[in-house]
Design brief:
213 residues; alpha+beta; 5-stranded antiparallel beta sheet; 3-stranded antiparallel beta sheet; 22% strand
Length: 213
Amino acid sequence: MTVFADKNLKPLPEALPPGEHVLYQCSPGSWQALSRRVFFMNKIAIYMTIILAWVGVNAYLDQGSALAIASAVATTIPAAAAVFLLVFWLGRFYAKTTVYTVTNKRVVIETGLSYTTITNLPFSRIERVDMKAFKDGSADLEIHMAGDRMLYSMLWPSTHQWRWKRPVPMLRAIEDPQQLAGILAHELSNSVVASPAPSEFESENHGQQSAAV
């Protein structure tokens, strides 16, 4: 099959073993999409707008003047702006530092700000991949794994948000999901279903102590 690799391919932390090679690599295509889906940027903006309106209405009911409204809203805006800027910053930096790599043996998720965590998802452990498409043309791919429970903290934000008991890894805000889905389908169909050695399925925390998933 024809494979794809970004021209600015980021090397993996360790050299690939003989016979393994990179087929595809990307990062979340849009920090805005990541901010909306992971950090609820749109919902936070609506919530902050409601809070500002509530503060203004209460100020008017208490004092009955436009000056009171302006003063009350002005004192609330800095806190609202700080929350929104935090979400903005998290979305941008996680989109920039998260890297998804697909080889002919596994999927690798690299993510983190201060510390980079690396999670290997061998094809032999992948049960299925579900894709959720969005109006902007991007999609999130959920990777359902067999075997031991994975660590939510190692995967976040590249994981399903509401599945803490058994975290589901996700490739988020993929700009060309059909191509990536095609590569995954091809490689999964070619993979041999076997139980890998425990060391094949693990997460690493660069800058901190390694932890098995």
